[in-house]
Amino acid sequence: MKSAYKGHTDTLPDNLRYVAIEGVIGVGKSQLASLLAKRFELRLVLEDFEENPFLSRFYRNPSRWAFQTQIAFLTSRYRQLSTLRTLDLFHTGVVTDYSFDKDQIFAHMYLSGEEVYLYDKLYSQMERSIPKPDLIIYIQSSLERSLERIRERDLPYERGIDIDLLKRLREAYMDYFFRYTKSPLLNVNIEQMDFEQRPEDLDELSRIIVETDHYGITYFNPSKPELFK
Question: The whole model's pTM is what?
Answer without folding.
Answer: 0.89
